[in-house]
Amino acid sequence: MTDLLSVEDIKKALGAFAAADSFDHRKFFQMVGLKKKSADEVKKVFQILDKDKSGFIEEDELGSILKGFAADARDLSATETKTLLAAGDKDGDGKIGIDGE
């Protein structure tokens, strides 16, 4: 992950959302610098977060998404996970594809 994103940016973003139920995916992804990355770089980050290499990030993977940025990061709460899934799952199949499907 640190080949694509700044260690300092990741630390700041994880620190900002360290408290339970404080996660805001839009702010987090902006803080880690993902919004400034090319489509290919975003796809590489997606592939890192897709732990089972299914081509999708499922709900169980979303719960531990912060650990994809740093091993000692916290898990998302059930509420945070469902909010993130709802934001990214454009076709309602319960998982997020690289194109939001």
Automatic annotation (TrEMBL):
Is Repeat there in the keyword field?
yes
Q: Which UniProt keywords apply?
A: Calcium, Metal-binding, Repeat
Q: Does the keyword Metal-binding feature in the UniProt annotation? A: yes
Domain EF-hand as annotated: residue spans: 37-72
Cellular component GO terms held in the UniProt record: cytoplasm
At which positions is Ca(2+) 2 bound?
Answer: D91, D93, K95
Mention one GO molecular function: calcium ion binding
Q: Name the SMART domains for this protein.
A: EFh
General function of this protein: In muscle, parvalbumin is thought to be involved in relaxation after contraction. It binds two calcium ions.
What is the name of this protein?
Answer: Parvalbumin
Q: What is the organism of origin for this protein?
A: Myotis davidii (David's myotis)
